[in-house]
Amino acid sequence: MKEWGVDDVMVVELSFMFIIILGRWLLPKGNISHSALSQLLLVYLSLASDILDLLTLFSEKEIYLSSPMVHIVLVIFSLCMFQFALNLTATRGRSFHAEFDEAEYEIRQLPPPIPIHQKVLNKLMPSTTPSSSTARPLTTTSANQTPRIKPRAASFSIMNPSVTIFENPIHNENLEMQEILKPTFPEVNLLSTIPRPIMQNRLSIGSLNSLHSSLWHTSRSKQMSRKSIAESVKVFVKKRSAKFLRSEIWSILVTLSLQDGPFFAVRLVAIFVYRVRSFLTYFFTFKNFLILLFQTYRITSICLERDQEEEEFEEKMDTIRRMSLAASQLGVSVNRNFYLRMKNQLTLLWRCIFGPKLYQTYPAIPPTPMRNDQQPAHIYEKNTAESLSDTVFFALKLSFGILKVTWPICLIYFYRKGFLTYDNGIVTLRLAGCVAIVSAYFMLLRGVGRYVNPSYKLFIDEFYRVKTNTSKDARQHLLAKFDFSLSHWQPDYVIDTSAVRKIPMISITKDELLNRTEPTLLERIFHYPTLFLGYICVNVFGRRLMFPGSLQLLRQMMERPLLDGRTNLIVQHRAKRYVIRTADGNNIDTIFVDRRQSNQTNNGRTLVVTCEGNAGFYEMGCMGTPIDRGYSVLGWNRPGFGESSGYPGALSEINSIDAVMRYAIEELHFLVDDIVIFAWSIGGYSACWTAVSYQDIRGLVLDAVFDDVLPLAQRQMPAFASKFVEKTIRYYLDLNNVQLLKLFNGPFYLIRRTQDEIISLVPGRVETNRGNELLFNVLHYRYPHIYNDDQTLTLLRRYVCANQVQRIALYDQYCSNETDLQALTREYRMEHPKAAYPCKFGETFSLIERQRFAVYLIDQYLVNFDSQHCTPLPQTFFRIPDRCV
């Protein structure tokens, strides 16, 4: 078989171009003028020449020898042929299109009954003028003549289908028009009490201006000289579909999506992937780029610019809005049209897709306890679509969380195995694209599942109605009715960003400065690399190990207990939820139980602010203890816990508690000296910081609190990494409670759990409990004249580390005359009404007196609770701390 030459290929290509133009000329063109047809053929001539330019890529050796690239070019070449099956406009004029809003109404008004004498005169002297200014002159026909029906001359549209209208309806006193077909506007009766006349006269809504003066008798000359607003709207409605579907914007989008966009992409691939360096390829690539740029600008100008026709229509629509308001004031019922209903449904679907997650609807009375495998009635029941989508999103979040933790290890592994290549990068991008597509699909599926769920539709309707409402009562009513994700909720209280707090700089004592050694040359060289590595370790896994409550998996496992805890607080204790925006930008989920109006006890005037542990939440944490004692309680979840945003850490911890304290003082109107801080476990850091920053608080209660997090962190890490752990902790997670507590001059006491397995270096051994070190350092700092010799310090450690039997024996030995000790402390408080530490108490005491007070003071600051770390604290152990000395 003879091979084709270059000339043969060129002839085939040129013939193909002329076949396209000839076929477009012969195919049905619709109602188009000769001038428009000539412009259309010129457009297709330009398009055909651009298409043939794509075939010049086959002249490049790199493209011709690549089978995938050949297939891609041919597929794109075939794809662009589909645009010739569309009837693209050849005009370059501006096509006006707009969307209707809820002002698109029409009102049908019935005329008054015609008097009998007027009917007689009309029969004797027929006239072509209407009997009312509101009636339109119509040509009458005989009784047996049917009205002429004329189809609408407009393009078919899904949203505005082609219908027929009556040109000359029958006008006869014995015949009544049963139906008048209309394309868009619903019709309502303005005066339903008036009987239906011979003919249904139409009145535009603009005629409502005359209802206040002369409703039925208007000057004919004035009516004929003024253009009806409703008639203008009708004309616009008839042409809207054709203008919108035949607008130039659609021809531009078709050309860009089927030709210029794919051509530009394939030429970029040829340049950057296959290293094509020919002049023609560069020229056509730049040409496609300019076309994309200019056509995008053209689309933008079409969408944004407004012509005179649009402005006139906007003025008419504004008039219609005012008239519809007047109609509503006159008691006229106006129906919303189809477009408004469609808009509302699409808006509802959009809100269901991107709306917050609904957890439950709070019951009116506290629910009865049920097993975990039973679903309470107030828990929101998801359908299959929403449940499946939430499962997929949870799996994706969990995968991303694991990837965030392991990415340094994965990066090193891939580098050593040689996987960091261009091809693997393309595979990774494809995988990311697949994940994005899957996420979009399940997001849409979740939205559809919510859309068909009546419970969620009821919630989302109330949510968006209240979301922008500044009324506190409306917001609290919604929060007391529904339990939902607070990610979409506006904060109730915002701290200015200029008030952001910084990590406190703890002063170094002279002894610590003397004991410090000069860093070696090697330590100086590796100082900053070590800090950088420590920063990576803290953000990858260190923070999550220190605050496991922020892990997505743990929150998912504890979802049901958290929901039950919130239900108990909201329903039984009438708690109120608030969202507070901190100075560093985190939203803190808080809950407040107000007991100030309670008549059962006077404790309600005292506010207890709780600080939870590293896996604690206010829903099931330490709030229950002060609530049972009748105090007003304010609980909060640290950043990354529950519905609070952000990540936990030392800096976010102090900014969060500062925002909570400001809200309690400024919005809840509690005095500082009526506030008690109650902290458990790692919450002792934020509590100690609050005590230092707000020295006038009434007291501080520390439950299972450690002195310093460094020994606990070093216990969990290998011994060879001890120095690295110390440097990392001191720079990024320095939770040093003892140094903060030394700066607090108010009363406090420590609850020590004798079987604590978390803050004890040896689980269950009370002598290794880090709370002991906290007590040793603070007492030694506050009372330097009591604990000023080795014998007293030894007695201090002996009493703190003793078991219950030994402590009773030592206390009976040294504090048998407790009344005398109380009298001495009372006398000192009278002489020094304002507490300040270190104090001079015991400056003149003998050794025996110092030993007696050494044991007595420990008993005032320490309360032992025989339990493990996570056991709820009984209310008998909670009290308001008093000043000891």
Would you give an account of this structure?
Residues 127-142 have a biased composition (Low complexity). Residues 607-730 form the AB hydrolase-1 domain. Keywords: Membrane, Transmembrane, Transmembrane helix. Residues 127-151 are annotated as: Disordered. This protein has four domains: 12-96 and 242-316, no CATH class; 358-498, no CATH class; 524-735, Rossmann fold (3-Layer(aba) Sandwich); 765-885, no CATH class. The relative contact order is 0.05. α24 crosses α25 and α28 (790-801) runs parallel beside α31. It has a nine-stranded mixed β-sheet with strand order 5-6-7-9-8-10-11-12-13, with helices on both faces. Strands 1-2 form a two-stranded antiparallel sheet. A two-stranded antiparallel sheet has the order 3-4. With 885 residues, it is an alpha/beta fold. The radius of gyration is 41 Å and the shape is elongated. It starts with 5 loop residues before the first helix and ends in a 20-residue tail after the last strand. The protein contains 31 helices and 13 strands.
Write the layout of secondary structure elements.
Layout (H helix, E strand, L loop, with lengths): L5 H21 L7 H21 L6 H4 L2 H13 L36 H9 L24 E3 L12 E3 L53 H6 L3 H17 L2 H25 L6 H26 L3 H22 L8 H17 L3 E4 L22 H34 L4 H30 L2 H14 L4 H10 E3 L8 E2 L15 H6 L5 H5 L1 H20 L5 H6 L1 H14 L3 E6 L5 E7 L13 E5 L12 H5 L3 E5 L13 H17 L8 E6 L3 H10 L5 E5 L5 H8 L5 H11 L4 H5 L6 E6 L16 H13 L7 H12 L2 H11 L3 H14 L15 H15 E4 L20
